[in-house]
Amino acid sequence: MIELDGSSLTLESLGRIAIGGEPAALTAAARARVQASRDVVERHAASGTAVYGVNTGFGALADVAIPHDQLARLQLNLIRSHAAGVGEPLPVPVVRALMALRANVLAKGFSGIRLETLDALIAMLNAGVHPRVPSRGSVGASGDLAPLAHLALVLIGEGTAGDVPGAEALARAGLRPVALAPKEGLALINGTQYMTARGVLATEEAHLLLGAAQIAAAMSTEALFGSVNAFDARIHAIRPHPGQVAVAANLRALLAGSEIVQSHAGCDRVQDPYSERCTPQVLGASLDALAHVDGFRRWRVEAFGAEILAACARA
Question: Exactly one of 21, 52, 68, 310 is catalytic; which is it?
Answer without folding.
Answer: 52
